[in-house]
Amino acid sequence: MGKLKTLRPRVQTMDVRIVKPMVIADNRMTGYKLQQRRMRLWRHNPCCVKCGRVTEYPHGFELDHIVPLYLGGEDADGNCQILCNGPEGCHGKKTRDDMNQLK
């Protein structure tokens, strides 16, 4: 089997000045503990932090890190917030804003 010739140019052009590598198993909560956190924070306040819209459990919101993990934020309840999702949701807007700060 031959080598892929198209992968090398794309890998060399990646800019990794600010973004630190993240290993999911080490830095991010997953599985049952994550679902417990989602339920706990949603029960505390089921409204989107940005627009105030009431969200439905479990698919009406995203659990967002206030300071993203790739920028050094910790994976703790105090760094999490509920944001509505969907095509015009606040979670997508915040993610785009976070990514624009990297440029």
Automatic annotation (TrEMBL):
Keyword annotations: Endonuclease, Hydrolase, Nuclease
Entry GO MF terms: endonuclease activity
Segments passing through the bilayer: none
Residue ranges of domain HNH nuclease in the record: 35-92
Protein name: HNH endonuclease
